């Protein structure tokens, strides 16, 4: 990582000193469909889903933002709108919103403040690169396993009796859109992995029952 802890802390202080604090419930829109962002958001705690709507009127998951990340990052830096929808994925998701001009002025006056933003940009690039590489797997089952392993590395996992639970809710449609598969095929393959004793689920949370076997499946 390029940013020092003091630089990251300084950026957070900017949001908290000049920003507007908001708390969202699960399912609340933060940036509505077709809406121009009203500012740049820092996630103090919680989860935020970024997605768009395809021409087939289906949700296409782009990325799930977690605490200590900023969105919409591309718009914040370039001003280019992509009409991405942002929605809270957890109760008590807390954000701080600042005017884009305030952020840009800070970057221009203090170039070192770019370091944490550059780290976030690199991480976003890495995640999108992994998504592209994931599509090289020929079967939907392989792509599902690769996606779940990536999610387990990005988000915290909770050790429970059944295995390791990825602490982010994932709908079958979210997984399907991320791996370029239909929801029906994705649901069928998830069920097959469940029957093989490799994964299970509780509500919308996926539990990895045997990570080593999942990794070996890809090899």
Strand-helix topology:
Blueprint: H1 5-18, E1 20-24, E2 29-31, E3 40-45, E4 47-53, E5 59-66, E6 70-71, H2 73-78, E7 85-88, E8 93-98, H3 100-109, H4 114-134, H5 140-154, E9 157-160, E10 163-166, H6 172-178, H7 183-195, E11 199-202, E12 205-208, H8 211-218
Antiparallel strand pairs: 1-8, 2-7, 3-6, 3-8, 4-5, 4-7, 9-10, 10-12, 11-12
Helix pairs in contact: 5-8, 6-7
SSE pattern, N- to C-terminal: HEEEEEEHEEHHHEEHHEEH
By CATH, the architecture of the largest domain is named Sandwich
Oligomer designation: single chain
Strand order of the largest sheet: 1-8-3-6
Name the CATH homologous superfamily of the largest domain: Jelly Rolls
Shape assignment: globular
Largest sheet: 4 strands, antiparallel
Cα separation of the termini: 29 Å
Q: Helical element count?
A: 8
**What percent strand?**
25-35%
